[in-house]
């Protein structure tokens, strides 16, 4: 979607590439106020008498906007335009002239390879594609695309600087459980387009951004690459299913976005891998009827943060947990047969299972 | 209900069964209120996730789900498909009215402008905050930003509404018109809806109205109202606040998903949640002639309300909260300030990662005791920072000429002093998940005491299950119902904190006290520095405490001066706080852990203390 009304460049049914412009808008140029009354030392109501040009006219940088007419030429004051632009308004109350720079063209790219199924007049388009989709939990950096490459052999292997080489330039590198600050530095040097890993340390994120991220609203950072975490903060192996899916698409082009917004309209980072056939297909929506015994789940809160298991029981009564809160819980069975009781809000179902 | 928010409808029919919802940013909470005999009681509650976001994008879905839970629990049929049955058809069918508040979708976000930052700028900010808004920026002629920076700022923010003020009536118009020119040049766009015009309220110098209209009429949905600062010595915030409520309903809410339907379903205008809570806080203070501080600590924001000497103020700390904004509490308070409340040692990296994991998965809850203790440590800092913010805005009017007498020679005070005086504070009211749902009530009490450091004798209470917003909107249509439920089901009195002012070495005498209990018995003991003592004193009961502070210690009557006070009980009781004011915690890690453990054990704060 465009941030302001614009023009749509494609039609329903068109096939588009991820880097193709689908809509265009003109962002109004920057405004430069000049207080002519102050600069000419005249009353605001008089400035129109001193103006050489008028409202609506186009002026070049350094062109004279206004001048006084002193008896002695030596005392002449000329006010020149600081920019090239248009005279938007002249105020006889404040003595101010507002100059506006020419508009900046803003292009909206398709972001994914696919087909246009809907155009929203003046605002944007809907692109449909047959794809594999992996949703991350947190990311930074905007939309980009690149070929998928795996740098590690297993989902629990951390990414180290040694894993990066020059062939990864412009690609989306998939790692395992952890990305260190040194590995981030190396990734930047190599020039990767994106990184997908299980976790990072918060202090490394702070060092990367240069500030402590207070609220999870991201997507505009420019750190040299787009980073997507699939699990969270700390060293956490990437879910085997996610790793397997990404590994199965090595060499394919993926569109990724680190944009995350965890309030008022949840947006999670995403990895979209369009399939070869981009024909408009039938949408298959996964319908879930709540959580069930046997569902694969991930624990998303300490003390067992990141562990994966399956639901083995769903007691309906409230249970008192160690904090003394009475909450609804479920029982999770791990692959080693061990069972634990966890508050229901502290797990997430692994979708697409 | 499409009536103006500033003039609530008059409802003639009897209201015996009321269903009310609060659509929060994550959860929609519904309560059922029924008239039992002569009084109203809150009988059932239900909740469901808020459905403003995709895939639902219709707030009414969450409302219906929450009401369905009440149906299930109460056995009353309230819903007929997607409709709420009103009025009641029989004993077990329908409700007499449905009402709601909302803070979903990020609440009401406003930008305000003034001419002088700490005069009309602050008045505009107070008007917006009092109306339940989050103020995302205050622009003024003297805010230090260059004109093009102001324009860029207006352009880059996407407020729901702008409130413009500036100048006293009959004063100079230049700066107000200049600001209008900047706003027009920026062509501000609203947060929701690409194609509709941004609502803009002008409440400044009335002499500038024609020029402001000329500049902004075509570029915004302009509404002109009375000046919020007609003369320097007086604020007139009500007309602007009413206009904000009206425009919130007419413009902003119409753009949010499903709100048109919600407005039609409701029997009274939808209110912004904080405005409704503010109404209740103001009502308590007025009814009981109290000075109070109220706090509502949520996932994204912390709202602070105060009434001192009858003057109401509200502030919102938009990025201090316990889930969405938890990481910002760490960023603003700093790790050391959070760690000072944690009664064990933990390495920085682990704590930072845990806090970030809570931010990205905001609905999780602490499962272990140490996780709960970390969360409550963060809450203390969020509460403390929000009160500092509130104190800076809840002030007397700045720029007002003061009359001085010879006796003021040694007491030079500037105008605009904060109105918050902890010694004159009678009651602290806490609301929000971490306070309302703390496993032990003493935890809520100590959280507020540690964060606010009340002085002298101060009563504390919490909202039992978070229903103040519901009661706030209810009070606009039925004062009795709101008061009945508030007194009987909402307000849980925790007890009273007695805290002498001053400092001393641990073990030194802080004060001698004598308590006359309601059963006639007395306790005569000595409070030492570094001690916390908790005495049971039931809700509704009162005791008399006579305190003789040590020479350098003050209980409000002056250093070393004895005082006698009536103190109220509560579910926790009477807490004597000998830790000194201002409260200073040991800096050294081991000493800090020991001190916290001693205090927490003394009041039975956590299970391990038993």
Query: In percent, how much strand structure appears in the residues of chain A?
Result: 35-45%
Mean pLDDT of chain A: 87
Write down the domain tally of chain A. Answer: 3
Strand content of chain B: 15-25%
Strand order of the largest sheet of chain B: 15-14-13-16-17-18-24-21
Radius of gyration of chain A: 28 Å
Structural class of chain B: alpha/beta
Instruction: Give the biggest beta sheet of chain B.
Output: 8 strands, mixed
Helix content range of the residues of chain A, please?
A: under 10%
Shape of chain A: elongated
Number of helices of chain B: 17
Please outline what is shown here.
Chain A has 353 residues and is mainly beta.
Walk me through this protein's architecture.
The complex is a heterodimer of chains A (353) and B (610). Chain A is mainly beta and 353 residues long. Chain A has three domains: 31-100, OB fold (Dihydrolipoamide Acetyltransferase, E2P) (Beta Barrel); 129-274, Glucose Oxidase, domain 1 (3-Layer(bba) Sandwich); 296-349, SH3 type barrels (Roll), CATH 2.30.30. Chain A has helices at residues 36-40, 47-50, 181-190, 202-209, 240-247, and strands spanning 7-8, 15-16, 21-27, 31-35, 58-59, 64-67, 78-80, 85-90, 96-100, 104-109, 114-120, 124-128, 131-135, 138-140, 143-150, 172-174, 194-200, 226-233, 253-257, 270-274, 296-299, 308-313, 319-320, 326-327, 329-333, 339-343, 347-349. In chain A, strands 13-20-19-15-16-17-18-14 form an eight-stranded mixed β-sheet, sandwiched between helices. A five-stranded antiparallel β-sheet of chain A has the order 26-25-22-21-27, with no helix packed on it. In chain A, strands 4-9-8-5 form a four-stranded antiparallel β-sheet. In chain A, strand 11 and strand 12 (124-128) form a beta hairpin. The radius of gyration of chain A is 28 Å and the shape is elongated. Chain A starts with 6 loop residues before the first strand and ends with a strand. With 610 residues, chain B is an alpha/beta fold. Chain B is built from 17 helices and 24 strands. In chain B, strand 7, helix 2 and strand 8 form a beta-alpha-beta unit. In chain B, helix 3 crosses helix 4, helix 8 packs across helix 15 and helix 15 runs antiparallel to helix 16 (479-490). Chains A and B meet through strand 4, strand 9 and helix 4 of A and helix 3, helix 4, helix 9, helix 11 and helix 12 of B.
């Amino acid at each position: 979607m465009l941030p302001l009304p614009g023009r749509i460049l494609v039609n329903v049914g068109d096939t588009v590439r991820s880097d193709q412009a689908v809509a265009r808008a003109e962002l109004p140029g920057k405004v430069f106020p000049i207080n002519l009354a102050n600069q000419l030392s005249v009353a605001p109501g008089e400035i129109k008498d001193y103006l050489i040009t008028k409202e609506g006219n186009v002026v070049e940088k350094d062109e004279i906007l206004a001048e006084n007419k002193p008896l002695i030429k030596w005392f002449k004051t000329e006010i020149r335009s600081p920019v090239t632009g248009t005279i938007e308004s002249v105020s006889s109350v404040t003595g101010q002239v507002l100059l506006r720079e020419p508009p900046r063209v803003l292009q909206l790219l398709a972001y994914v390879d696919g087909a246009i199924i809907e155009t929203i007049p003046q605002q944007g388009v809907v692109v449909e594609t047959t794809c594999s989709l992996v949703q991350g939990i947190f990311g930074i950096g905007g939309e980009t695309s690149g070929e998928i490459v795996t740098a590690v052999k297993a989902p629990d292997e951390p990414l180290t600087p040694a894993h990066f080489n020059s062939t990864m330039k412009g690609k989306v590198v998939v790692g395992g459980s952890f990305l260190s600050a040194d590995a981030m530095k190396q990734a930047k040097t190599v020039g990767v387009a994106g990184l997908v890993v299980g976790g990072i340390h918060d202090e490394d994120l702070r060092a990367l951004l240069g500030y402590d991220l207070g609220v999870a609203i991201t997507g505009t950072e420019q750190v040299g690459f787009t980073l997507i975490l699939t699990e969270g903060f700390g060293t956490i192996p990437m879910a085997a299913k996610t790793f397997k899916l990404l590994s199965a698409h090595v060499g394919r082009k993926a569109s990724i976005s680190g944009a995350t917004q965890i309030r008022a309209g949840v947006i999670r980072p995403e990895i979209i891998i369009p399939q070869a056939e981009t024909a408009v297909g039938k949408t298959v929506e996964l319908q879930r009827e709540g959580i069930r015994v046997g569902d694969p789940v991930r624990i998303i809160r300490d003390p067992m943060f990141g562990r994966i298991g399956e639901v083995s029981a769903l007691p309906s009564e409230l249970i008192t947990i160690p904090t003394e809160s009475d909450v609804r819980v479920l029982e999770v069975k791990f692959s080693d047969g061990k069972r634990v009781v966890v508050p229901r809000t502290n797990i997430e179902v692994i979708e697409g299972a | 209900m499409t009536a103006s928010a500033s003039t609530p409808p008059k409802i003639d029919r009897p209201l015996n069964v009321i269903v009310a919802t609060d659509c929060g940013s994550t959860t929609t909470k519904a309560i059922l209120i029924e008239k039992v005999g002569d009084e109203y009681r809150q009988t059932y509650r239900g909740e469901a996730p808020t459905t403003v976001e995709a895939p639902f994008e219709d707030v009414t879905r969450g409302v219906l789900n929450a009401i369905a839970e009440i149906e299930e629990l109460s056995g009353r049929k309230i819903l007929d498909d997607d409709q709420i049955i009103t009025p009641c058809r029989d004993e077990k069918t329908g409700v007499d009215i449905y009402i709601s508040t909302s803070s979903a979708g990020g609440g009401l976000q406003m930008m305000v402008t003034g001419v002088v930052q700490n005069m009309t700028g602050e008045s505009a900010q107070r008007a917006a905050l009092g109306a339940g808004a989050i103020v995302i920026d205050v622009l003024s002629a003297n805010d230090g930003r260059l004109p093009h920076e102001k324009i860029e700022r207006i352009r880059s923010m996407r407020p729901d509404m702008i409130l413009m003020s500036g100048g006293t009536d009959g004063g100079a118009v230049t700066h107000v018109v200049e600001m209008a020119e900047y706003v027009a040049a920026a062509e501000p766009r609203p947060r929701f809806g690409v194609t509709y015009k941004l609502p803009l309220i002008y409440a400044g110098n009335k002499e500038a109205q024609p020029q402001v209209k000329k500049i902004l009429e075509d570029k915004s949905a302009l509404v002109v109202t009375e000046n919020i600062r007609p003369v320097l010595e007086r604020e007139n915030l009500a007309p602007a606040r009413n206009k904000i409520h009206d425009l919130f309903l007419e413009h902003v809410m119409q753009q949010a998903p499903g709100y048109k339907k919600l407005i039609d379903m409701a029997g009274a205008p939808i209110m912004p949640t904080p405005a409704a809570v503010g109404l209740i806080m103001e009502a308590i203070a007025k009814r009981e002639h109290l000075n109070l501080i109220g706090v509502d600590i949520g996932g994204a924001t912390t709202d602070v309300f105060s009434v001192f000497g009858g003057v109401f103020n509200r502030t919102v700390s938009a990025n201090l909260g316990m889930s969405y904004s938890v990481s910002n509490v760490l960023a603003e308070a700093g790790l050391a300030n959070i760690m000072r409340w944690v009664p064990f040692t933990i390495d920085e990296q682990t704590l930072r990662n845990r806090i970030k994991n809570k931010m990205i998965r905001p609905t999780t809850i602490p499962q272990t005791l140490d996780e709960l203790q970390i969360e409550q440590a963060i809450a203390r800092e969020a509460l403390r920072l929000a009160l500092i913010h509130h104190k800076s805005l809840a002030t007397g009017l700045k720029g007002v000429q003061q009359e001085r007498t010879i006796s003021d020679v040694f007491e030079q005070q500037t105008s605009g002093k904060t109105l918050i005086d902890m010694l004159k504070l009678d009651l602290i009211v806490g609301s929000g998940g971490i306070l309302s749902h703390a496993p032990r009530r003493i935890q809520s009490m100590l959280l507020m005491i540690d964060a606010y450091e009340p002085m002298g004798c101060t009563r504390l209470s919490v909202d039992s299950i978070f229903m103040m917003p519901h009661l706030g909107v209810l009070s606009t249509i039925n004062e009795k119902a709101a008061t009945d439920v508030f007194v009987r089901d909402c307000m849980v009195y925790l007890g009273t904190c007695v805290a002498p002012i001053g400092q001393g070495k641990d073990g030194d005498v802080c004060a001698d006290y004598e308590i006359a209990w309601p059963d006639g018995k007395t306790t005569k003991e000595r409070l030492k520095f570094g001690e916390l003592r908790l005495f049971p004193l039931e809700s509704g009961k009162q005791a008399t405490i006579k305190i003789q502070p040590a020479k350098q210690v003050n209980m409000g009557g002056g250093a070393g001066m004895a005082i006698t006070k009536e103190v109220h009980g509560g579910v926790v009781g009477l807490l004597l706080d000998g830790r000194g004011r201002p409260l200073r915690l040991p800096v050294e890690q081991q000493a800090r852990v020991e001190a916290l453990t001693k205090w927490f054990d003394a009041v039975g704060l956590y299970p391990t203390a038993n």
